[in-house]
Amino acid sequence: MPGPSTLTVWLYDSAMGAAAAEVRLKDLQQQNAITVHDALTVTWVPGAHEPRIGHLRHATTSAASKGSVLGALVGALFLSPVLGAAAGAGVGALAQRLRGTGIERDFLEQITQRLHPGTSALIVLSSDADLDIVRPFVERGRARGDVTLLLADLADDAPAALVDLLGDVGEQTSPFPGDADDPPPS
Question: What does DSSP assign to residue 41?
Fold first, then answer.
């Protein structure tokens, strides 16, 4: 039985920071230091109007065939036409939908405020982290000063609740309209 789920957002001061973090995350998975349920990178190059979302492969094909709850979440935060000029209202509405999952409005607002052109993020839904292995990885990045870590401890039923709550949002805004292995549209 998996341990409690956590949503972590690793925010980098450069557009390429998340790509390097993806490699480190894969290393942690190979060491069995963390169980990754869903993960994606968000890269926002300078001058672009919106970020590019890259989906990391799921551990199982059944998870991949169901799409990405994180893709729907990021799509709702950054790609949804509903947000537009009223981003604060959009974040508030999304936070209301996510009430009780452990993802609070402040957490969502920090993501939208810190992720902008010239930055990137690695967003990971995980459980069963071996803190003795994961902690030094996190602390090295924070000591360099190039990463900010946001963390939300999720309610026990949060992953299922996220899928249910974001299901209709994902159908409308997910950057992954087909199989999760398909690249996002350019």
Answer: E
